Amino acid sequence: MARMKFLCDMERCIACHGCVVACKEGHQLPVGINRRRVIIINEGKPGEKSISIACMHCSDAPCIAVCPIGALYQREDGIVLVNKEVCIGCGYCFMACPFGAPQFPRGNAFGARGAMDKCTFCAGGPAPTFSEKERRLYGQNRIAEGKVPLCAGMCSTKALLAGDGAVIADIFRERVARRGSGQAWGWAKAYKE
Amino acid sequence: MVKKILTLLMLVLLPAKTIGAEILRPYGPVSPVETLRKLNHLLLGNWPDEGREFISFIVAFKNYYFYVLIGVLGVLFLHYLIFGPRRFEHRGERIFYYGLFTRLVHWGAALSMTLLVFSGLATLFAKILGGGSLVMSLRSLHVGAAFAFAPFAILLFLALVKDMVPAFYDLKWFLVMGGYLSRQPRPVPAGKFNAGQKMWFWLGTAGGLVMFYTGYKLYQFTAPVSFLREMLKIHLYLGLAVLALYFIHLYMSLVAIKGALKSMLSGYKDSEEVALMHPKYYEKVSKD
């Protein structure tokens, strides 16, 4: 089975925040819930680069490991999802996540955290597919419709790629080869300053 | 022809090359590995240093609470079976032990602490309760109970601290395990409060305030994630100790020593009990 992945091409990302807005609008997320965000380095200076980050749907995901209640699970295609009806909002997943992907709404009794919300790879959640409950809790299920995630579909420069890991890796490799960015591999590049 | 080529070289290509080298170069292709290395800290924070350790900590701690809960309850049950409860006559002279203020503050702290312990346990063992909105409400209760507990912890500290200063004979009390490992009550080295009570006092008040601070930071959830991880670790370690001593205190006062509950309601202790279990205080009172 295909392994779903995100890949953001930093040579193409122009920090337009289109992915962020698309995600927020498409899933009707409340203010303060950011399933996707854009990080910029050297802003306004030579060498400016940006990257769009959401849940990376890790293999052996830390959030699944620390969840005290088993609310998080991984689909066969690698997409990590949360069951919001079971989640108790303890926040362990946020502390275990390298990317800060889990988000928590406020405004319950005493202002305590509600159930965790995160990128679903536009694959809905454990509720019945295309049900009203699924839409309300998790947003659209574009994967079941046969579409790519909204952020990647909306990306104006096609910097953000989403889909079968093998396919997007091929696309990216081709781009890098065409750009001729020199040696982008090897011990010295990866580990030496 | 040569002149034309030279002019082109001088006027167009050379400046273009120079400008390109100076200005355009940074915008040209850069190895993604290089860029990612710069981005790494922004993306991951301290995760590469502490993430793995944090995950194994949480995974291990899920079980620690279970073991401690079962272990403490099991040991207390065995203690009851082997040594049974202690009864004092409660007919002799009575000694005034707890003032009204102390008793009121104690019961305020006791009630909120009970809510804290059980709502905390519900959060930890959410899986048994099925999670969802039930546990979420109990988590909110945990927050509310913490705000109720904090002022009582401060007042209890102020009310009792002068009698709770550790003394040398407390070590001896620990060596004989407070004399609880025998059926026959013998005098044990203790002042107004014994070493066990002192331990519970310091953990409950000073530790309780640390629990409040760490819990408050976790409730806010706005601090850097690295700091939150530390807060959670402290909260879980201290919580483990509070859990154990809470149940021991409950057992002592409700089950093991008959009349202990009454003394915290009326303020009076039986003189025979004081002479045996708090001899140093008994001597002091008898002299007066």
Q: What would the average pLDDT of chain B be, to the nearest integer?
A: 87
Q: What is the CATH architecture assignment of chain A?
A: 2-Layer Sandwich
CATH class of chain B: Mainly Alpha
Q: What is the CATH top level name of chain A?
A: Alpha Beta
- Helix and strand sequence of chain A: EHEEHEEHHHEHH
| Annotated CATH architecture of chain B | Up-down Bundle
Instruction: List segments of chain A where confidence is low: pLDDT < 50 over at least 5 consecutive residues.
Output: none
Ranges of chain B where pLDDT stays below 50 over 5 or more residues in a row are 24-28
How far is the first residue's CA from the last residue's CA of chain A?
A: 38 Å
The name CATH uses for the topology of chain A is Alpha-Beta Plaits
How do the strands line up in the largest sheet of chain A?
A: 1-6
Q: Number of DSSP strands of chain B? A: 2
Number of domains of chain A: 1
CATH superfamily of chain B: Transmembrane di-heme cytochromes, Chain C
Output the structural class of chain B.
Answer: mainly alpha
Describe this structure in words.
The complex is a heterodimer of chains A (193) and B (288). By secondary structure, chain A is α+β, with helices and mostly antiparallel strands. Chain A has one domain: 2-Layer Sandwich (Alpha-Beta Plaits), CATH 3.30.70. In chain A, the strands form three sheets. In chain A, strands 1-6 form a two-stranded antiparallel sheet. The longest helix of chain A is centred in the last third of the chain and has 15 residues. The radius of gyration of chain A is 18 Å and the shape is globular. By secondary structure, chain B is mainly α. Chain B has one domain: Fumarate Reductase Cytochrome B subunit (Up-down Bundle), CATH 1.20.950. In chain B, helix 8 packs antiparallel against helix 9. Chain B is elongated. The chains are: A alpha+beta (193), B mainly alpha (288). At the A-B interface, strand 3, helix 2 and helix 3 of A face helix 2, helix 3, helix 6 and helix 9 of B.
